[in-house]
Amino acid sequence: MQTPTTPKSREAIAAAYKSEPWWYDVRGFFILTFAYNSTLTEQLRFFGPNFGKQHLEVACGTGTLLELIFYWRRWKKLPTVQVVGVDYAEPMLAGARHRFAGKPDLEFLHADVAEMPFAADSFDTANVANAVHCFPDVDGGMRGVLRVLKPGGTMAANVLLFPRGRWPLRPLAERINRWGMRKGILFTPYERDDIRQRIIAAGFEIVTEAVSGNCYNVLARKPAAQ
Questions:
Q1: Which of 26, 155, 191, 221 is the most buried (most CB within 10 A)?
Q2: Strand, helix or coil for residue 165
Q3: pLDDT per residue as tens digits for the range 73-94
Q4: 194-218 as b/e, with b when 16 or more CB fall inside 10 Å?
Q5: Does residue 225 surpass a pLDDT of 80?
Q6: pLDDT tens for residues 158-172?
Q7: What is the per-residue pLDDT for 108?
């Protein structure tokens, strides 16, 4: 299947995500479960360890997953870190700011992943959780994350793949994806080899990768300075 190439503006994406934070979270749970065919437990284990001292959370949404990751990290007795979250949609950011009010080590900014207002080499780590599917310019987004990572910094990302498997999960995932495209919250799923090559072309080195359900989990590193 071919990946769409028609770009969407930041405003169009933000409008698609203009919903109440509680509805965004409910909708996200069904997309995670039936489109990604993944679980919160899998996500906590994948994204939870990838937090350096200065961490970037791309497309942070309302911060629901981020909050759960913090609980997981405290349970694992992992250190606290400085976190900056970015998102296209102000309603989502409003939910995150409310959720983490009074937390000086967290900041949430309205930004396009391809044009983030940070200096190069600013962050030790970055997570892109359940979000690559909504990037209209995925190549620009990957280059944007690479630019702001420090040399040797890592990006953890999970990518929605075109549905795999058998009935009834595959047609259910296909139906959810079609709905997401009509709604504007899904730009496209990907083939594993396609998105893998895009990540490499952006300048990353693949550290680990695995396909689980309809999800490609990849940990990629910005090459160390020569």
A1: 155
A2: coil
A3: 999 999 999 999 999 888 889 9
A4: bbbebbeebebeeeeeeeebbbbbb
A5: no
A6: 999 988 877 777 777
A7: 97
Any idea where the domains of the chain sit in the sequence?
10-221
Flag whether pLDDT at 2 surpasses 70.
Answer: no
Which residues fall within 8 angstroms of residue 119, CB to CB, at 6 or more apart?
148
Dist. CA 226–CA 165, nearest whole Å: 43
The angle that helices 64-75 and 40-47 make with each other, rounded to 10 degrees, is: 70
CATH of 10-221 given 3.40.50.720, 3.40.50.1100, 3.40.50.150, 3.30.565.10: 3.40.50.150
Q: Which two tokens stand for residue 66?
A: 């981020």
Do β-strands 205-212 and 149-160 pair in parallel, antiparallel, or remain unpaired? unpaired
